[in-house]
Structures are given as structure tokens and as C-alpha cells.
Amino acid sequence: MRSRIWAAVASCALLLAGLAPHVGFARHERATALRQATIDQIERALAAHRYSIADLESAYEQRIHALDQQGPALHSMLELNPDAARLAGQLERAQGKRGALFGVPIVVKDNIDTADGMHTTAGSLALMDSRPPQDAFIVKRLRAAGALILGKTNMSEWANFRSSYSSSGWSARGGQTRNPYAPERNPCGSSSGSAVAVAADLATVAVGTETDGSIVCPASVNGLVGIKPTVGLVSRSGIIPISASQDTAGPIARTVEDAATLLNVLAGFDPDDPATAPLKDQPPADFRLALRADTLRGARIGVLREYAGFHEGVDAAFDRAIQTLRSLGAVIVDPVSLPTKDKFSDDEQTVLLYEFKDGINRYLATRRGGGPKDLAALIAFNQAHADTEMPYFGQDLFIDAEKKGVLADADYQHAHERARRL
Fold first, then answer.
1. What is the three-class DSSP state of 150?
2. Cα–Cα–Cα angle for 39, 178, 207, nearest 5°?
3. Between vectors from CA 219 to CA 246 and to CA 222, what angle results, nearest 5°?
4. pLDDT at 373 over 90
């Protein structure tokens, strides 16, 4: 059994390293140097005319077919952008208007609205017959920056907020996303598809979303860089919500520099998201400035030792990282403790249930076409299609949320205040 597992892991690693010839960029040999390419490397290669954006689009599409839909069948992509080849041509003809992500292949999580030929469903079959009225604010920024949006990524259905017993990375639309380094292992969620697609080099960078761990966990498990921005740094308008208090979108990348470059594009003031109001008069600085070697000097960084001690290899890597921070001038406070860490979970859950009902009802009301228009109708859809929507777990969180009242309720107000204070 162990030999079979290691054989599968080794085979997948060879595929991801680009050593399997049948997976290569056969049609565009000039693009073979793209494997694991960074944003800067792509920009330099395009500027030097070593390959075209059309070459990029075709090469990545072939790789998605070979690794995601066939081969190890990672199931990280829900659908390819049917307009990707046409958009690549448009970008090619507009080279005088290069943005920060000009020609960069990117994928976005399926809970982020795109008003194009793709669906936005949060992985659910319930939203297949309706469409959002417009691009999410951050999608507009991606397009303005010249990004080539290749497709929508699989995710934990409804961002892991349908059931307390869900499988991270599973959706009714896409099935189970698989970890590219060990296909038998869970990729973590809910931005599982976004992380797996970047780890498997099916795109250069990806956009995920997080309420509580949904960027940082899949980034960690798939060996990537994930950033959960402070709420209000990145607009949430046009993103299927869970919690107005905690939701945000953020970058997933293979390098810190790429994550910073993508965050530069995502961050900014949106008049439709009040949380971003402080950015109107004071836009964020260039996050790439934080890549200077001296930016950690004097920063106080606490070490939560209580979360270590479960694996010797992980602990060794953890300690090496801490030593690196110290060598770069950070002040390490080791250990620190969070005395309130186990005391606000009940209040947090109450807040999430109330805010989900309020947010999802308002969001579904904006969708054009058929499909559920509120949470009650969504619950009814799942019950009517239980064989495809609920073959493995139910919808207890949906049901609990539907029982909640409005945000003016004292129960919500008190829970929200206690959670923030703790």
C-alpha cells in the first residue's frame, strides 16, 4: 500500500515538474520555459516576444486538459473561460496599454461574479440557471490590469458553509478537488481549486476568498503563498457572501512577490462596499515595497507554540522560519498565548449564521434568470435534488441560518459585540 501511494505521489510530482512529455506544451515549444513562471518572468518574455499571449492561453489550456481533466484528474477547475482565446487576441492587439498583470493567466474562485460566458455558482447546481448582473469589482480590476482569466475554480460548496460535516474541496458541480502532491490527501478549503490550480501550474496566480481559513489553509497545504487581507482592503461586492464581518478575497501564488503584485491589483476603494471607504482618500501603498530586506526590522512577531508540537518535521521547518525572521531584524516574542482563543466560537457562529442569511438573501435577489432567490428557496432546491447536492452531507448550517432573524435582533448585536471584544 505504501509503495503504491509513493508511486502515485512520484508520478504526480513528475507531471507537476513538467517531466512527462505527453503533458508538455507540444503546440508551442517556445512556451516550455513558462513552467512555474512568475508574473515578472511572463512580463519579460512577452516584452521580448519570446512567445505570445495566445501561446500562453493555448499552453495553459492544454495543461489543464492533461492534468485537471485527465491524468491525475485534480478537479481544480469547474470550467474554462470560453472567451479566453479571443481575450488573448484582444490583449495582444492592445499592447500599448499594459497593466500590472498584462497577459498573466489567472483563475478565480467560483463564488466571484463574472458577467461573461462562465457561471458563478459557489459550486452549487442551484445557481446554474441564473447569472450575476455584472463583474465583481475585483474582476473589473483584474481585467483593467490586463489579466487573462482562464476559468473558474472548484471550491468547497458554498465556501464550506452548508454543513458542519462537509468535505473540504467538494462541490456538486466539480466533485472532490485533489491535492496535487498527494492525490489521496485533502487539499483543504474552501479555496481548494484556486490553490491546487496554482500548485499544479494550471495558472500563474489565483484569487481565493476567506471567511475563516479558506485562503491560508489551502495555500499552506498546497505549498503556496496565501494572504487574507484585512477586511476592507479588498472589495466584497459581487462575491457570494458568508459574513460581512469576516469575508474578503485575496491572492494565492507561488511566490511572495507574485502575491504582492496581485494584491496591488485587488486592493482599492469600491463605492459599493462601505468597508473600503478609508481607501478613498488614502489608497494602499505598493505591497511590493514590503519585499525589501529591511522591512521586518523592529517588527514584533509572536510565536504561538501551542499550535506546534504535532510533527517533528513541521516543527523543524517552523523553527527555521522563525530564525529567518529573527535574522532579518524581527523581534521574536516566543512564546505568546491568546487567552481568549477558545471563548468566542459560539458568538462567532451566531454572527456567521445571522450574517449569512442576511447576505445571501440580498445577493440571490440580484441574480438574473431562474434559480433560488432566497435562502428558503435554496434549502428547498437542495432537498429536491438531494441525490446530486447532498450525497455525502446535508445542509444543517443553511437550516440553522434560516431560523435566525434580522441583524437588528439583540441576539445578533450582543454576539457581534462579544466576539469583537474577545
1. strand
2. 35
3. 150
4. yes
Interior/surface letters 62-85, b for 16+ CB within 10 angstroms, e for the rest: bbbebbbeebbebbbbbbbbeebb
Q: Report the relative pairing of strands 105-109 and 205-210 from DSSP bridges.
A: parallel
**Dihedral angle of Cα 69, 72, 75, 77, to the nearest 10 degrees:** -60
Give the pTM. Answer: 0.92
End-to-end CA distance of the chain: 47
pLDDT in tens, 319-331: 999 999 999 999 9
Q: What is the pLDDT of residues 116-168, one digit of tens each?
A: 999 999 999 999 999 999 999 999 999 999 999 999 999 999 999 999 999 99
Burial of 403 (0-12, 13-18, 19+ CB in 10 A): exposed
Please check whether residue 93 is in contact with residue 81, taking contact to mean a CB–CB distance below 8 angstroms. Answer: no
Query: Quick one: DSSP state of residue 204?
Result: S
Give the residue numbers marked as catalytic.
109, 190, 214
- Report the C-alpha gap between 111 and 103 in whole angstroms: 23
- Measuring CA to CA, how many Å separate 95 from each of 40, 48, 244, 265? 16, 12, 38, 18
Residue 93's Cβ-count burial label (10 Å; 0-12, 13-18, 19+) is exposed
Please provide residue 195's backbone torsions phi and psi, each rounded to the nearest 5 degrees.
Answer: -70, -45
CA distances to 111, 136, 167, 239, 291 from 210, rounded to whole Å, are: 11, 16, 16, 11, 24
